[in-house]
């Protein structure tokens, strides 16, 4: 139990701004933290859904409510996942491989591919969130929770056994290859179960949206691993944002 508590603290401090002491930071704690990533995402999603519903009840225009919710999500995650998306897009857009691509990821500036990826992701997220409050509040809650959980589940899958780290240090080296098949199965089943209630009258649409989004994020991760030799913290951030964005898009479709 102590080990899982350490993993939960590490997951919370990795995926949110909660000011918790992470406790032991080693491969064992990292494995538990990545296994619990979707649970942390679900908790974050519940907060964001509450804000979205409150703004809608207060009469805020739908797109404004969606944009504020997206902004709050970035604030509560320190913008790290968005930064990872931008860095990964710039590295892939450079058509470079190996160390040269990793160097681009490490640069503090954002290039044109990174800017385009950020604008597209934020726009789609805000627009999709804007469409959700027209549904019953329970469906809106389930949809936002599903999307944020599915985003973090993509990171869990990226950390499955057999996936290497691109560098010998950093977050990628700590978490790469740490998640086993049982943890993957449990986390995936939980997200799929959450997704069933996300679209009223179509219990299949939520699971289909989440599974499709995670699959796309995994294709992206595999491509990056081929290009740079493994995963990094930036790659995990990109997987999270891609999966979250596509899940929201799939859930917003009528």
Layout: helices, strands, pairs:
Blueprint: H1 2-15, H2 27-35, H3 37-57, H4 62-76, H5 80-93, H6 98-106, H7 112-131, H8 137-158, H9 170-175, H10 181-195, H11 205-228, H12 233-252
Helix pairs in contact: 1-2, 3-4, 3-8, 4-7, 5-6, 5-7, 5-12, 7-12, 8-10, 8-11, 8-12, 10-11, 11-12
Could you provide a short overview of the structure?
By secondary structure, this protein is mainly α.
3D structure, described in words:
By secondary structure, the protein is an all-alpha fold. The chain contains twelve helices and no strands. The chain has helices spanning about 1-15, 25-35, 35-55, 60-75, 80-95, 100-105, 110-130, 135-160, 170-175, 180-195, 205-230, 235-250. The termini are far apart.
Residues in helices, as a percent range: over 70%
- Coarse shape: globular
Total count of helical runs of at least 4 residues = 12
N- to C-terminal distance: 43 Å
Compute the average pLDDT: 94
Strand percentage: under 5%
Structural class: mainly alpha
SSE string, helices as H and strands as E: HHHHHHHHHHHH
Oligomer: single chain
Biggest sheet details: none
- The overall strand count is 0
Key terms for this structure?
254 residues; mainly alpha; 12 helices; 0% strand
């Amino acid at each position: 139990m102590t080990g899982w508590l350490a993993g939960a603290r590490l997951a919370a401090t990795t995926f949110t701004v909660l000011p918790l002491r992470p406790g032991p930071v080693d491969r064992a704690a990292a494995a538990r933290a990545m296994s619990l990533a979707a649970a942390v995402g679900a908790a974050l999603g519940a907060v964001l859904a509450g804000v979205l519903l409150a703004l809608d009840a207060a009469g805020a225009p739908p797109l404004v409510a969606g944009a504020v919710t997206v902004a709050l999500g970035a604030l509560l995650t320190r913008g790290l996942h968005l930064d990872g998306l931008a860095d990964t897009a710039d590295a892939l857009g450079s058509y470079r491989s190996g160390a040269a691509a990793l160097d681009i990821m490490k640069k503090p500036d954002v290039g044109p591919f990174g800017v385009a990826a950020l604008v597209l992701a934020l726009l789609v997220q805000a627009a999709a969130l804007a469409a959700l409050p027209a549904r019953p509040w329970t469906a809106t809650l389930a949809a936002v929770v599903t999307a944020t959980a599915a985003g973090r589940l993509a990171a869990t899958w990226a950390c499955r056994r057999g996936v290497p780290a691109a560098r010998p240090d950093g977050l990628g080296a700590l978490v790469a290859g740490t998640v086993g098949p049982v943890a993957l199965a449990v986390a995936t089943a939980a997200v799929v179960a959450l997704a069933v209630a996300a679209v009223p009258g179509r219990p299949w649409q939520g699971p289909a949206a989440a599974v499709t989004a995670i699959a796309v994020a995994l294709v992206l991760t595999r491509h990056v691993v081929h290009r740079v030799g493994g995963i990094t913290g930036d790659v995990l951030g990109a997987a999270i944002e891609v999966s979250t964005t596509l899940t929201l898009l799939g859930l917003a479709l009528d």
